[in-house]
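check these tokens.
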Amino acid sequence: MRISSAILLAGLMLAASPAAYATDMAAMNADIVHLEHEWARITYLVKDHDAQLSQIDALNKEAAGIVKKYPDRPEPLIWNGIIASEEAATASIFTALGYAKDARALFEKAEQIDPKAIHGAVPMSLGTLYYRVPGFPVGFGDNDKARHYLEQAMALDPDGLDANYFYGDFLIEQGEYQKAKQVLTHALAAPNDPARPIWDAGRRAEVHVLLDKVNGKLASR
């Protein structure tokens, strides 16, 4: 059996330079942490709409550059997709769908590399896009696909704050209020993340808003 020279060379390089590989991964992780913190700061702390849009657009471009640095890793693709999704939510109705399509393509590419990366962030993010984007003929939204992906994300990260938040939000939109209440209550049981305090506090506040909404729906029945 013949092994291509390219594959053999790659294997030799990896075996010969584990320190260089570790350095690359450390650099990538630092880039990802930067994207996480900037996304959280812009999303939860920047209140002016124009400033938020400008800053998320700049971060989207920065994330695309990080994807180019690590083209074979799913993590930069996922975070580029998350930031593109945020830009879709912030942008005008004339440009939002374009950003949403960009985000979907990034998530699908990450899915091909590792569908379980970052505790199921790929199916969670795809599921969120599919229920938040309008359906045909305006967009590509699809509640069946949304449920499939969100339940997949819950299977991968059943105790995760994000997974439970987005699944709970989806269930509210489907009118499944009792189940949504259970899922959102479980979200708040997730341990606090001291490494990402802005996101942690911001997401928990959003969960409380949804719980108030679902409690109101249940009380009115």
Summary: DSSP finds ten helices and no strands in the chain.
